[in-house]
Amino acid sequence: MTLAVLHRDRHFLVVAKPPGLPTTSPAAGDSLARRVHVLDPDAPRLHPSSRLDADVSGVVTFARTRRATKALLAARKRGAYERLYLALCARAPEPGAGRWERAIARDAHDPRKRVVCDDPGEGQPAATDYRTAAQSPHACLLFLWPQTGRTHQLRVHAAGADVPLLGDRPYGGPGRVVLPDGRTTRLPRVMLHCARVRVPDPDGSGCLTFLAPAPDDLVATWTRLGGDPAALSALPD
After folding, report:
1. Calpha distance 88→140 (Å, rounded)
2. Using one digit for the tens of pLDDT, what is the confidence trace for 165-186?
3. Active site residues
4. Is residue 97 helix, strand or coil?
5. FRET partner for 206 with CA separation of 20 to 30 A, picked from 37, 82, 93, 187?
6. Rounded mean pLDDT of 59-65?
7. DSSP string, 166-217
8. Nearest to 13, CA basis, from 22, 23, 4
9. Which pTM was predicted?
10. How far is Cα 190 from Cα 88, in angstroms, rounded to an integer?
11. Is the link from the previous residue into 18 a cis peptide, with omega within 30 of 0?
12. CATH number of the structural domain spanning residue 143
């Protein structure tokens, strides 16, 4: 599987992560980080500034220098590190736009999972801005902007709002959708994709924007469920 390189300069190597590949792996297995080291063996360092879940696709930014790492950390602290995700769910949330702010805690029954909690003292503060982008007869396309970076945050917040993401079976999302005519659309992975990342240039020359088009499986799922594929590329400013 060939990685798509979205951007490379002195400070950053940006790639489009395919679904099914972990960002990092503590064992000797395959991972995005290992593949990136093969792509860029002479980089002074390669630090992923975000870690997408294995099933999630999209933009991953690797800092190639210490200066870039510090710049990204500072950008996160002042809210200047923007990530925009595309997500598919079965129906639109109510209201159609807003912010999810329920805290997120480790699931007491499964330490690999997370849950929302209404007592901030029981979990970590978390915030996700969301907007209904488009609807089809059988699905809804959401724009999601995480304002914090908790484990499984977007998936958990969507499930907590009663709109679990398609394919996200650990958090209550359906593994398939049966259409009125009997056709079945199978959902082998969570329908979540990081479409855009914006970060300040460490050299102080404005803002850098990195884009990853929606992958084929997400486009095919949205289209089979009656969605207009053009909606997947009509990103908000």
Report:
1. 6
2. 999 999 999 999 998 888 999 9
3. 53
4. strand
5. 37
6. 95
7. TT-GGGT--SEEE-TTS-EEE--S--EEEEEEEEE-TTSS-EEEEE-PPPHH
8. 4
9. 0.95
10. 9
11. no
12. 3.30.2350.10
Is 237 domain-assigned? no
CA angle, 80 then 84 then 90, to 5°: 150
Query: Has residue 87 been placed in a domain?
Result: yes
How far, CA to CA in Å, does 65 sit from each of 46, 62, 84, 91?
A: 7, 9, 24, 43
How far is residue 183's CA from residue 205's CA, in Å, rounded to a whole number?
51
Average pLDDT, the chain: 93
How far apart are alpha carbons 42 and 151 in whole angstroms?
Answer: 31
Domain count, the chain: 1
Residue 65 lies in a domain: yes
From first CA to last CA, the distance across the chain in angstroms is 31
Torsions phi, psi of 32, nearest 5? -60, -40
Cβ-in-10-Å burial (0-12, 13-18, 19+) of 207 comes to exposed
CB–CB of 102/115 below 8 Å? no
pLDDT tens, residue by residue, 108-125: 999 999 999 988 788 999
Domain residues for the domain of 163 are 4-232
